[in-house]
Write a structure and sequence with these properties.
- The chain folds into two domains: 31-97, Metallocarboxypeptidase-like (Alpha-Beta Plaits); 128-420, Aminopeptidase (3-Layer(aba) Sandwich), CATH 3.40.630.
- It is α/β, with parallel strands linked by helices.
- It has an eight-stranded mixed sheet, with helices on both faces. A four-stranded antiparallel sheet has the order 2-3-1-4, covered by helices on one side.
- It is built from 13 helices and twelve strands.
- The protein starts with a helix and ends in a 5-residue tail after the last helix.
- Helix 6 (187-201) crosses helix 7, helix 6 (187-201) crosses helix 13 and helix 10 (326-342) runs antiparallel to helix 13.
- Bound molecules: 2-acetamido-2-deoxy-beta-D-glucopyranose (NAG) and zinc ion.
- Zinc ion is lined by residues 182, 185, 253, 306.
Length: 425
């Protein structure tokens, strides 16, 4: 083959690859249905759908009986779905007949790349490398206080980058904050970076104490490949990007090695709650768990940020049995949801994962609590509430600050109560 010809072929291959990666998932004419199972049989029908079909995207986990379940349904799948719901006599409502249009109506606002002179802020969402650049700047600007940490690696070779903050200059009891393990839940990493900024700059006495009393480990992006993919290709992507036979990705919050895949997860690679082929099959959870294990004994409080529905949750997800220190979990839960409500009247509910939302084995908080002796572990499902927007993962950018402010209020109260109960000693 001549040089020019092979060069040309190579060029064509690059063009083809670029063409593939530039293709964006669209949800034109997809419908959004809200269904509600009134009994166990109907719930089983929804669960079966959730674990089997990637033509139906579940925006909520399949809840306990009586809770709403929103589904984004591919046009070709609508007749089948309606027949299945009809046969099972499951009540449903059509909420949107064009999900793409509904999504486009939310003013999400993403930072424009390379806009000169604009400081990192919370009036917009950011792409991964913008946030990573900001974290690197923080480490340079705050020597002795901010240290870059690598919580792990991703399938596509990225770093799970975060910061360790020692505001007092000394090692203190540890709080670990992990966000963004589910790629499409954009408010979670935005709130995590807001908290980093407040820990470093706030003049409010309670926040200054929060920064000084503890050593903080904050990872805004626990699933970087997935997050990048939500920007480049599919805004509703949830999982990692590991290729499996017919579909991509495992649910990194169903992949941790603690009662892995016992309940509330799927064995189908096309499901959004695919547990993976084995516990810690995902390099993201494997490497992050190794990092956490290296900190064993140093972390007393673990916080995982998700969206949406306004829940505060604690272990366990795999069983309705309650943790032995559930009385303390309840005390901390009570003060934390009271505090989240104070500023803007935002209502959170919750409790133990299994009963408050749905059985779900293999989550990070359960692993931290169940295997690492982290005696206080919580998961926030941030704004919006489950009934306010049809596509709750797209929280308008104007709500990043209020959602984060009330979260910080809640975490201040949480840490103080965990401290009162003696867990930091
Ligand atoms: C920080 O420590 C002080 C002094 O021990 C304590 O009174 C306060 O409640 C702590 N604040 C938080 C948020 O942990
Ligand atoms: Zn989530």
């Amino acid at each position: 083959m001549s040089l020019t010809k092979s060069l040309l072929l190579a060029l064509l291959a690059v063009v083809a690859l670029a063409g593939v990666s530039a293709e964006r998932a669209r949800y034109d004419n997809y419908r959004l249905y809200k269904a509600n199972a009134e009994n166990a049989e109907q719930l089983a029908v929804l669960k079966q759908l959730e674990s089997s079909s990637d033509s139906i995207l579940f925006l909520d986990g399949v809840h306990i009986v009586g809770a709403d379940v929103k589904m984004v349904v591919a046009p070709h799948k609508v007749p089948d779905l309606l027949e299945i719901l009809g046969k099972a006599e499951i009540k449903y409502l059509l909420q949107s007949s064009d999900v793409q249009k509904t999504m486009d109506e939310t003013d999400e606002k993403v930072a424009i790349k390379g806009r000169a002179g604009e400081a990192y802020n919370w009036a917009q969402y950011y792409e991964l490398d913008d946030t990573y650049a900001w974290l690197q700047t923080l480490a340079i600007e705050n020597p002795g206080v901010v240290t870059l940490i690598e919580g792990g690696k991703t399938y596509q070779g990225r770093s799970i980058l975060g910061v360790k903050i020692t505001k007092s200059g000394k090692e203190k009891p540890g709080i670990f904050l992990e966000a963004g393990i589910h790629a499409r839940e954009w408010i979670a990493p935005a709130a995590a970076t807001y908290i980093i900024n407040q820990l470093l700059t706030s003049e409010v006495e309670a926040v200054k104490q929060l920064a000084e009393n503890y050593t903080w480990y904050v990872l805004p992006h626990a699933n970087p490949d997935g997050y990048v993919y939500t920007h480049t290709t599919d805004r509703l992507w949830r999982k990692t990007r590991t290729p499996y036979q017919s579909c991509f990705g495992a649910d990194p919050n169903r992949n941790w090695a603690f009662h892995w895949n016992e309940v509330g997860a799927s064995s189908n690679p096309c499901s959004d709650t695919y547990a993976g082929p084995s516990a810690f099959s995902e390099i993201e959870t494997l490497s992050l768990s190794n990092y956490l294990a290296s900190l064993k004994g140093k972390i007393q409080l673990y916080i995982s940020l998700h969206a949406y529905s306004q829940y505060l949750l604690y272990p366990y997800g795999h069983t309705g049995d309650l943790p032995d220190n559930v009385a303390d979990f309840k005390k901390v839960y009570d003060v934390s949801i009271a505090a989240v409500n104070k500023r803007y009247g935002t209502t959170y509910t919750g409790g133990n994962i299994y009963d408050a939302i749905y059985p779900a084995a293999g989550a990070s908080v359960d692993w931290a609590y169940g295997t690492q002796d982290v005696r206080m572990a919580f998961c926030y499902e941030l704004r919006p509430s489950s009934n306010s927007f049809v596509t709750g993962f797209k929280l308008p950018a104007a709500q990043i600050v209020p959602a984060s402010e009330e979260l910080l209020d809640s975490i201040v109260a949480m840490a103080a109560e965990v401290n009162n109960l003696g867990y930091f000693n």
